[in-house]
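Before drawing any conclusions, I looked closely at one protein, both as residues and as discrete backbone shape codes, quoted below without any editing:
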Amino acid sequence: MSPGTGAALRMLAATADAKAVAEIGTGTGVSGIYLLLGMRPDGVLTTVDPEPDRQQFARQAFRAAGFAGNRARFIPGRALDVLPRLADGGYDVVFCDGDRTEYLAYLDESLRLLRPGGLVCFEGVFADGRTVDSGAQPVEVLTLRELLRAVRESGELVPSLLPVGDGLLCAVRRG
């Protein structure tokens, strides 16, 4: 994650006055730290990743960054298996940085998870410039194109594509 993308996430979490954030793709914890920095002091980050080792690394990174253990909830597992168990309308922000071939399904789950006025963000939607390349593309890029189209055409979302990092697609769920 680029520092610019991280700064945008921190600002968006603060703007949403986020108390509950769901993150798809824990990674090494970098995005989680930025989200936690923007969240309310009593906020909780719920982070989902299929690799428990990554989550352990992120847990250590959060601790080293000064966050109390109760500020993050780590759920190991595949996102599409875990997300249906999370509370409807219980989240202020959903950040998606998991398997890009599943981004459309993450969008559906995010709409269910978000409160009205909540924000969903997708990292990496430029795919190193391949989303606008007219040549043959892998499934990941085709899925990103479908995601961009679905968000743009949705009457339920107010979108913006931020040119930070490898592209950050954000959308507010209408109330």
Notes: The mean pLDDT is 96. The helical segments are 3-15, 30-38, 52-64, 79-82, 103-113, 139-153. The chain has one domain: 3-173.
